Amino acid sequence: MEKERHVLVIFPHPDDEAFGVSGTIATHVQNGTPVTYACLTLGEMGRNMGNPPFTNRENLPKIRKEELKAAAAALGIQDLRMLGYRDKTVEFEDDEKLANAMLSIINEVNPSLIITFYPGYSVHPDHDATGAAVVRAVEKLPADARPTLHCVAFSNNCVEELGEADIVHNISAVADKKLAAIQAHRSQTEQMFGDVTEKLKNQDPQMMVWINNERFWTYKFEK
Amino acid sequence: MEPIKNHRQVQEAINAYANQDVYIHLETTNGAYASHHDQTFFSAGAYIRNALVRYEIGKITGNDPYRVGLKINLGWIYAEGLTHFEVDEQNRLLLAGHDNKGKLAVALEISATPFE
Question: Which of B1, B33, B116 sits opposite A56 (nearest CB)?
Answer without folding.
Answer: B1
